[in-house]
Amino acid sequence: MKFTASGTEATLLAMRLARAYTGREKILKFAGHFHGWQDYALPGEKPPFEERPIPGVPRAVLESVVVAPVNDLDFVERRLAEGDIAAVILEPSGASWASIPLPDGFLHRLRAITEQTGTLLIFDEVITGFRWSPGGVQGLVGIRPDLTTMAKIVAGGLPGGAVGGRADIMALLEFRDDPEWNRRRVAHPGTFNANPLSAAAGCACLQLVADPAVQRHADAMAARLRRGMNQVLVTHGIPGFVWGESSVFHIALGHTCTNQRGDDIRMPEGVSPVVLKTGMPPALATTLYQAMVNEGVDLFHGGGLLSVAHTPDDIDRTVEAFERAVLRMREEGWFDRVA
After folding, report:
1. Contacts of 48 (CB under 8 A, 6+ apart)
2. pLDDT per position as a tens digit, 264-279
3. Threshold 0.85, pTM exceeds
């Protein structure tokens, strides 16, 4: 395990380790997946996911990153067969904490492809780590990536991140009593790496979330919220849907999906990945936020994450506030403007 000062630093270090270990230079990532603001993470992150110049990022950096189309494992299999990809990195929830969900079996097939081609697999569990389960997504689905990046929960909400992985890969960071080795090792100096304040907060937080009952409760509250909000939309004939998995939820008012039946939704059907990634039009999102604040609920832009602190009463009051908010928005003609 190596500690960093942020999730962005963690993904940067994981990519460097992968290149050093394999001797290959290129990284493959998926369109829409977020891995921080560092240069190698930016290609293909924002819709419409096309190749384009990025201000401040050298062309040589962009050329060293291969962007796979959304959830396209056939592309990945063909590209990895060329033998120049050091690692595949992805959010194992799907892009932007399950806003673009992964199909069933996706991660297992991806693991098989990477193993067959000698390509490292990096799970970016900055958000999913300790949230999907005490062992993150990998613990939930039974897949062991070669490297894992973590942040947020791992530092108890304070600045901090970490990279963990196979011992033979992490050994590239070690100091040894060998000057030649030390000249070739992967260096990672940093004033605030593993700073004591973040470490103490992380230790306290991880003790709390080590009990799977914590994740089960948060998951149940999120499912209750998604189901309740969808029931509101269907009951009142308001265009939109709420989806997610584990303890997260996303809201897309002004759009429709073919499997909206007023129940919980994990994977919206008949919706483009661009819509799933961007969510509501900005004006609609701002109006919903303001309407929810007027009802006493501070809603994160376009969605949010539930915790063990939330109760069924909190969820029910939030659904009631959501109902009043969207009805007020309909009265003001907001859904006519996006129809």
Report:
1. 274
2. 999 999 999 999 999 9
3. yes
